[in-house]
Design the sequence.
């Protein structure tokens, strides 16, 4: 083994030739333990070391040079002792290059699962193969190498998305993708003939998905960075009473669409913000992991969010690293608009993205700073209780509000609708009357013009998800199919623009509808089609769709071969069929279009039009001429050899050959040619080389490579042009999304008899004939009708205390009114006959019962935590829904807690409240209090005395003191004997004498009385609190 080595000092000089020879000789005789002294000379003695098998070293002096120096600075005496030169040696045989590279990547990216591309497979090695192979249902094999046995497992390349879904989405792992990059001739020579260089191209995490097939196309995939000063958190832990609530800076983005937002909030409101953003991955400062105050991390883990701890980046916002990842033509963010914590969060998230993408810089939209006063606030308990995103019981999408109201026809439009309902801090239910009314105007225009509505829906169905398509190109990942999809979307956008302008010019709108066209005009003026249309036409004139489809068929055929091979191996092992195979590939494999089918190796399927560029046209003409030469040569050889079956072919192993089928006569004529070299021969066939065909074939291959290079150049040009039109395409896509959401609301309004709500800045709520979207849909499937109800909340009745039987519809009434408020402020029509709503800043919902045993929280504790959040956060403009507060404890304690909650909402929060309860004593305690009204539902008994009864879901004024729990128990299937026992106990309890009123301190807060007594208004706690 021969290596180049320098001495320990890094530079060795000599003064005279004899002195240098003496120094080298001494170094050898002293077994290289002496170090050479430094001098001021500029020349260096270069030496090579040769290690023999015995371990000895032979030193060879380099080229002789001459140096002149003064004698005075020379060191005299013995040379100083030095450390022996450390030379790295290999202790044993090395792994093969691919496996060694994988091992190096596993050490470098120790936090990741490393998937290495090897030909048509992705492979796992060593301990990762043993750990994740069984989890992925992959067979773990053993590979023998000179360095030992290496565990390994793998899967075909076209199954990458399937296994990434398991690793990233299900197991929440980080995955490093190692791809193959072909080396040039010089690099191949340096590496000893290795064809590929394998390196990590990207690290995939739950929050950095871009275009993976397993992504939900109807929801955003947010990555969130949270910044909070650890010192303030630590100080708050020491002195919690006197310390302020720590401020928190947030930055979140969606790499798949380019959305980028920031916000400033505080630690108390962080849980609500997390519920709204619903991030797939959260980035926290490493310093927060070791703090004693775990409240921040507990909030992040509360809803099972995935947390990644990293070192925060505290650089300035105006740094090039930030601006280089934002739209080139977008407005530069002003530093003064962002807080220091927002800047830190933004820098951290962009640095993390840059690291995961291994240097590939995305093109994000300019960051939008969100403020809490811009939208209606919904906390996580409200989102869950109102079943906006998923059902409360089963956690399914079907049965949720979003499922009930979604009529969008595009994926990006569905995402925007979800964001408007509650799923994003960006466009959640608005607090701007102008914005709400402009959205409603758009819906009204579509309702009044069914033809316009229908035509837009037809056009929107032909669009693609251009927001995510254009983002793929910003990463350099888009393919020809994506270009065609983008081109078609641009063409459809142009047709939509023409349709809207034509409708405006047709004069169909009347004078009262003029304000609606302010919204139409603003949308139309936001469309920018000049640059995108030029791009679209160029794409259509460049890409050949028929050839592209043929290429897909070839790719499916190649994949089918791999599927058949993999399934043959599985069949030999007695295992099941390969899973996760695309349908087109599976069909070709089963139809026998894979292994055993010969493919014409000469055929090339170009995807570009021949006239895509002048150079491409010339190259194709040259290739056509070469093909004609081939045909001419083939005909001439057939005549000369008398072999009509002769064909000119190319094979991977033999190269350019002549192939002849025939008997002895044909073979004899071939052997007579002097310039022929026989390669293969059998009784019926013969293959041989002909110099003319070899030369012609090489020129043909060169022409094909040049065509391929030119197509790649043209494709790269189209990609770059897409990125140049990035801002225009994104703005156009945003307009299409708004039109899709408005069309969806119009469709829903026409289907379900919805009305336009009237929003104002007042505090009253007046809803006539209100309905619950999802409950009504479920009843309609059963052939039943929904009972609508009215709600009138004014200063005289801003708290409604509701009683009634179990299953009587109290909870439905509470939730439907909260949902109507949400829908109204998203700019949607609502399920009612009439709705007039004063703007709501926050909606709170405390319904249902659940425990959290993992967090050591009982059912009552969870109920109290939710109640405490409401009492701390509700404002006079809030809409509060509370159902059976205090039911998780004894009746006495429950009444006390329920009344305390009512008292606080009445005197402190002064909110609009719907309060349902089975504690009938509460109705006595608030009787006569101004601002509180009692309503109830009923049960109608049969007059025939047969014991039958029905629920009366229509609300009326008054109090229902019968919960009719035994009727519901019997309806649920409780054994008859148990119901009879319960009836006896109930009669006994009802006949017991009332408890005497308790002795209260003077002055009394209130006199608690039984049903036989009434509470006078001057002794009411509410009145007392009011006077206080």
Sequence:
């Amino acid at each position: 083994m021969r290596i180049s080595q320098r001495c320990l000092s890094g530079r060795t000089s000599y003064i005279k030739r004899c002195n240098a020879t003496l120094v080298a000789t001494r170094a050898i005789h002293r077994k290289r333990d002496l170090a050479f002294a430094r001098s001021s000379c500029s020349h260096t003695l270069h030496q090579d070391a040769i290690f023999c098998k015995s371990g000895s070293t032979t030193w060879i002096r380099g080229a002789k040079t001459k140096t002149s120096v003064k004698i005075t600075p020379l060191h005299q005496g013995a040379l100083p002792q030095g450390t022996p030169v450390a030379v790295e040696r290999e202790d044993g045989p090395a792994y093969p290059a691919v496996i060694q590279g994988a091992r190096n990547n596993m050490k470098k990216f120790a936090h990741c699962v490393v998937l290495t591309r090897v030909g048509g497979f992705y492979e796992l090695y060593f301990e990762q193969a043993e750990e994740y192979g069984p989890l992925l249902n992959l067979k773990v094999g053993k590979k023998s190498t000179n360095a030992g046995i290496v565990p390994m497992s793998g899967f075909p390349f076209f199954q990458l998305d399937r296994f990434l879904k398991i690793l990233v989405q299900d197991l929440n792992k980080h995955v490093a993708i190692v791809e193959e990059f072909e080396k040039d001739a010089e690099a191949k020579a340096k590496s000893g003939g290795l064809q590929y260089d394998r390196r990590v191209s990207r690290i995939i995490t739950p929050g950095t998905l871009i275009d993976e097939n397993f992504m939900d196309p109807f929801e955003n995939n947010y990555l969130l960075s949270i910044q909070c000063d650890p010192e303030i958190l630590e100080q708050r832990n020491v002195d919690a009473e006197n310390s302020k609530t720590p401020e928190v800076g947030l930055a979140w983005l969606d790499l798949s669409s380019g959305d980028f937002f920031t916000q400033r909030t505080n630690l108390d409101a962080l849980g609500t913000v997390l519920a709204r953003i619903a991030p797939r991955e959260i980035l926290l400062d490493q310093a927060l992991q070791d703090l004693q105050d775990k409240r921040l991390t507990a909030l992040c883990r509360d809803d099972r969010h995935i947390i990644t701890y990293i070192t925060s980046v505290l650089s300035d916002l105006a740094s090039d690293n930030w601006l280089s990842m934002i739209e080139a033509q977008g407005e530069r963010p002003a530093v003064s608009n962002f807080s220091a914590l927002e800047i830190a969060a933004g820098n951290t998230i962009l640095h993390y993205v840059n690291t995961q993408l291994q240097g590939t810089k995305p093109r994000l939209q300019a960051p939008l700073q969100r403020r809490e006063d811009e939208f209606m606030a919904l906390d996580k308990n409200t989102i869950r209780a109102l079943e906006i995103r998923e059902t409360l019981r089963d956690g399914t999408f079907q049965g949720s509000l979003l499922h009930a109201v979604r009529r969008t026809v595009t994926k990006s439009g569905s995402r925007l609708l979800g964001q408007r309902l509650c799923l994003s801090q960006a466009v959640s239910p608005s607090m701007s009357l102008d914005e709400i009314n402009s959205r409603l105007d758009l819906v009204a225009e579509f309702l009044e013009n069914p033809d316009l509505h229908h035509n837009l829906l037809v056009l929107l169905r032909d669009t693609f998800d251009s927001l995510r398509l254009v983002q793929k190109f910003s990463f350099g990942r888009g393919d020809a199919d994506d270009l065609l999809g983008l081109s078609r979307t641009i063409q459809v956008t142009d047709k939509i623009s023409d349709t809207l302008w034509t409708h405006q010019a047709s004069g169909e709108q009347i004078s009262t509808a003029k304000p609606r066209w302010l919204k139409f005009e603003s949308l139309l003026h936001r469309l920018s089609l000049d640059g995108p249309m030029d791009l679209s036409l160029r794409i259509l004139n460049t890409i050949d769709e028929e050839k592209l489809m043929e290429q897909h068929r070839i790719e499916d055929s190649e994949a089918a071969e791999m599927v058949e091979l993999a399934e043959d191996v599985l069949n030999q092992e007695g295992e099941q069929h390969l899973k996760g195979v695309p349908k087109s590939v599976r069909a070709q494999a089963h139809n026998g279009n894979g292994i055993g089918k010969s493919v014409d190796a000469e055929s090339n399927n170009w995807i570009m039009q021949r006239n895509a560029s002048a150079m491409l046209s010339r190259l194709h003409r040259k290739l056509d001429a070469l093909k004609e030469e081939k045909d001419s040569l083939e005909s001439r050889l057939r005549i000369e050899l008398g072999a009509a079956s002769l064909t000119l072919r190319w094979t991977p192993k033999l190269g350019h050959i002549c192939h002849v089928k025939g008997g002895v006569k044909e073979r004899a004529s071939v052997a007579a040619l002097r310039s022929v070299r026989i390669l293969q021969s059998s009784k019926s066939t013969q293959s041989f080389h002909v110099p003319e065909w070899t030369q012609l074939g090489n020129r043909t291959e060169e022409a094909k490579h040049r065509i391929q290079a030119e197509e790649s150049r043209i494709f790269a040009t189209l990609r770059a042009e897409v990125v140049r039109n990035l801002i225009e395409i994104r703005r156009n896509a945003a307009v299409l999304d708004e039109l899709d959401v408005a069309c969806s609301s119009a469709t829903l309004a026409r289907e379900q008899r919805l009305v336009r709500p009237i929003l104002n800045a007042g505090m009253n709520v007046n809803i006539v004939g209100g309905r619950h979207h999802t409950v009504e849909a479920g009843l309609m499937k059963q052939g039943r009708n929904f009972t609508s109800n009215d709600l009138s909340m004014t200063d005289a009745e801003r708290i409604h205390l509701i009683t009634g039987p179990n299953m009587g519809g109290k909870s439905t009434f509470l939730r439907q009114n909260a949902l109507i408020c949400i829908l109204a402020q998203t700019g949607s029509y609502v399920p009612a006959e009439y709705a007039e709503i004063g703007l709501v800043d926050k909606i709170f919902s405390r319904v249902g019962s659940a425990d959290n045993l993992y967090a050591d929280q009982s059912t009552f504790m969870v109920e109290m935590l939710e109640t405490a959040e409401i009492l701390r956060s509700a404002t006079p403009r809030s809409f509060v829904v509370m159902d059976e507060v205090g039911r998780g404890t004894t009746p006495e304690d429950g009444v006390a807690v329920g009344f305390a909650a009512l008292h606080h909402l009445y005197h402190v929060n002064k909110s609009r409240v719907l309060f349902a309860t089975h504690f009938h004593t509460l109705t006595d305690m608030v009787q006569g209090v101004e601002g509180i009204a009692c309503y109830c539902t009923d049960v109608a008994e049969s007059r025939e005395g047969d014991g039958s009864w029905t629920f009366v879901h229509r609300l009326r004024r008054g109090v229902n003191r019968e919960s009719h729990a035994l009727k519901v128990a019997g309806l649920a299937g409780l054994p008859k004997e148990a119901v009879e026992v319960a009836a006896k106990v109930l009669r006994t309890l009802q006949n017991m004498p009332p408890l005497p009123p308790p002795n209260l301190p003077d002055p009394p807060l209130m006199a608690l009385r039984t049903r036989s007594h009434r509470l006078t208004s001057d002794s009411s706690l509410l009145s007392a609190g009011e006077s206080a």
